[in-house]
Amino acid sequence: MSEAGTPRRKRFPLSLDDTRPVTRRLVGSHANLPASTSPTAAKPSPALPQVPAALPAAGHGLDSASFRSRMVDRVRLDGCQDADVLRVMGEVPRHLFVDPALVSQAYEDTSLPIGLGQTISKPSVVARMLALLRARPGGPSLGRVLEIGTGCGYQAALLCGLARNVYSIERLKGLHDKARENLAPIRPANLRLIFGDGRVGHGPNAPYDGIISAAGGLDVPQAWRDQLAPGGRLVAPVQSAPGSAQQVLIVVDRMPDGRWVEQRHETVRFVPLESGTRDHRPA
Ligand code: SAH
């Protein structure tokens, strides 16, 4: 079922006092590092988050608001015209989601390693996918959204400013735990983190107005199509042709009248959509 009505403007009320130092988080900044795990449950917290005006980062004295606004300018120049996407990108502190050693690159238009061989996409690509998601047949107001591949939690935080409820699923326990830790200072009340295999979607909260994947498979799993609401849209990287190493962005719309419409867009490069879950600890 699609959600009608005006989107509520989400804010990120976070005071600087609530913010832990950037150095406290991420284990392993580079590909294929094992991450420690902590078996705590993902619970939404009561308050909506707010971005601090400035945040000291690992001794860099980073003025995060001005870095973010320059990042937003670049994303706009890159072609993003969705004011709400630009707004949330100006609000969410991307540097909270990257390894302290990479914090100086947090606002560059570059993808960065987040541990366990995974990467956070570059801001212009994140913006492109979010804008595509909002351009769904049912209109830009998003009710429930499912994100496949929580990773470090950055895109999930952005989605929380664009949708009423966000469900984000991650197959690597180390990253699922890390995302929860990264998101703690922001405390999005409308986010639920799920540890599991996103190839089967997430049935309990279906249908979704939007499904967005940060990992690319050979094709779009049938479960994602099944869990899309009428008027809903799915955006994902997918293999461009059988046997090809290339990926393209695919958009699948479930039209309100029941028809299905698919569009293929530009070439992209995302991590693979893998099967099953992994809960490994460092050796
Ligand atoms: N949106 C993320 C991007 C993370 S990269 C961010 O902002 O950081 C893509 C993520 O997809 C990786 O963390 C990877 O582990 C995850 N992934 C790959 N296959 C998956 C699957 N079947 N189910 C859930 N997550 C998966």
UniProtKB/TrEMBL annotation:
One of the GO BP terms on file: methylation
SUPFAM superfamilies documented for this protein: S-adenosyl-L-methionine-dependent methyltransferases (SSF53335)
Alphabetized GO MF terms: protein-L-isoaspartate (D-aspartate) O-methyltransferase activity
Keywords in alphabetical order: Cytoplasm, Methyltransferase, S-adenosyl-L-methionine, Transferase
Region called Disordered, residue ranges: 1-21, 29-48
E.C. no: 2.1.1.77
Subcellular location: Cytoplasm
Top EC class of this enzyme: transferase
Gene3D superfamilies: Vaccinia Virus protein VP39
PANTHER family listed in its UniProt record: PROTEIN-L-ISOASPARTATE O-METHYLTRANSFERASE (PTHR11579), PROTEIN-L-ISOASPARTATE(D-ASPARTATE) O-METHYLTRANSFERASE (PTHR11579:SF0)
Family: Belongs to the methyltransferase superfamily. L-isoaspartyl/D-aspartyl protein methyltransferase family.
Protein name: Protein-L-isoaspartate O-methyltransferase
Protein's organism: Leptothrix discophora
